[in-house]
Amino acid sequence: MATYVIGDIHGCVETLNALLEKICPSPKDTLWFCGDIVNRGSSSANCIRLIRSLKNPTVCVLGNHDIYLLAVASKVIELHETSTSIKDVLNADDSGDLIDWLRHLPLAYVKQNTILVHAGLLPEWEPTQVSLLANEVSSKLRSDHWKDFMNDLWGDTPNKWKNQLKGKDRHRIIVNGLTRIRYVNINGEMDFKQKDSPVQPNNNYFPWFSHPKRLSKEYKVIFGHWSRLGLIIRPNLLSLDTGCVWGGMLTAARVEDNKIYSQKLIDK
Length: 268
What we know:
Number of domains: 1
Strand order of the largest sheet: 3-2-1-12-13
CATH superfamily: Metallo-dependent phosphatases
Shape: globular
Strand content: 15-25%
Structural class: alpha/beta
Distance between the termini: 34 Å
CATH class: Alpha Beta
Order of helices and strands: EHEHEHHHEEHHHEEEEEEEE
């Protein structure tokens, strides 16, 4: 029994189908997804339907684009003119089912010494904290009042973790740390403006995983989100967003040995 983890799909359902054919998982194999199932590509609804239909055990964490869809569906924000690719979810006959499935997904998944998240982890977070923090938000998203709760999640502040944070500030930084983080400074403050690959030091900020005091170093962290970073394979780090929706590759890895599977974008 193996576990395969797949990077950011962004509505590219034909490419996902082709990658799954290459992986050819056995019925007992598990499939993990790094989030950002929807948006930008042309088949967001069908991506959700495909993942829901898989007979294999699956784990999928929420990405920032998935949360964006939930925010639009809850009318917390208006649909951006460049995000028409999620209209197929919003206008689908089974829209309610698709949205409900999405909002019941976890924000993080921890198994033994491996952590699956969409974007990363704040340096102050202990590995044993991650599931607890994620569940603080997930439990609200799964409630009957989830649409009201979405108001708490939108914004860039606070950008530094403090254990004593409460209410919407706490919920927002948990979501941003798990689904939007790229760069932090030595004080653990997130910068959401920088998205480029860290080829050179940039204004005293560095990738979250390079923070010298990161408390999750002993765990293997698997994430996507950062297409300009691309594929990174290290003993305790696996980055899998290789820019499929931008004309790149959809990438998967076998968790046990980091064997890589990839599929060029074939969606129109």
